[in-house]
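Chain A, query sequence.
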Amino acid sequence: MNITFRQLRLFLALAETGSVSGAAKAMHVTQPTASMQLREVSQAVGLPLYEVISRRVHLTEAGHMLARTARTIAGEWDAFEQRVAGTKGLTSGRLKVAVVSTAKSFVPRLLGSFCKLHPQIDISLEVLNRDHVIQRLRANQDDLYVMSMPPADLPLEDQILMPNPLVVIAPADHPLAARKRIRLEQLQAERFILREKGSGTRMATDAHLRQAGFAPGAVLELGSNEAIKESVEGQLGISIVSLHALGPRHEGLAVLNVAGFPIRSQWHLVWPKGKQLSPIAEVFREHLMQEARGWMGGAH
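Chain A, predicted structure.
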């Protein structure tokens, strides 16, 4: 089977972008060249590797196997290049990090000092919902992952990054905003505006309310923290969100002092068990843990 390393990179780009044009752009070649190279890869394997349906690429079983193989080879090569660069005293390379959407409120700030220390390192930050981050984790597409609820069915290296308290928020002029102690049952008549099922915040919220024997009377589901905060400010209801999602300024919102809150959750830094982190990923991991401790100490 005669497939070049560059062709493997191209096929991996096809798998990750979902289109021939996307793969061509990622590899800096023309689309006709990419199409020709991909045909050669399929011919070399001797099996169909993908099909195009409604302009979207769908990998076959053989295609998925080749993508996993190409990802492993590319990862090993990138790690080798970084080790060689480290031996030469260089600090260039590429780091790929995927985080759940709520973590975008603090991860970029934790990345800032790392970028200042290592300006030659290219960083790819993917901000996605929990399901998509887990998909990337299963496919080993990134170096490190940040989430609040790691999947229980995957063998992972798991480090606690920092606390992720979940609080009840309401409009700033809500009648209960000035109360020093609120019983959960006093919120029975409120509409709860919650993240979609499957999100880490929603999973922790549902588990906490279930344990407390509380069922919201009405629920509105929204797919982003920004939409939830705007809806709460707009008097549509109350919500339970990560304290990090509020940010330093939330004049139109109030954190309610509800018994049993905040829900104690945590942010996790994870990667597949047995995976050897690249030198850059290892340095970043150590830096992120240190910065998180300092940031939490200074900001919260």
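The first helix runs from residue 5 to 17. The first strand starts at residue 50 and ends at 53.
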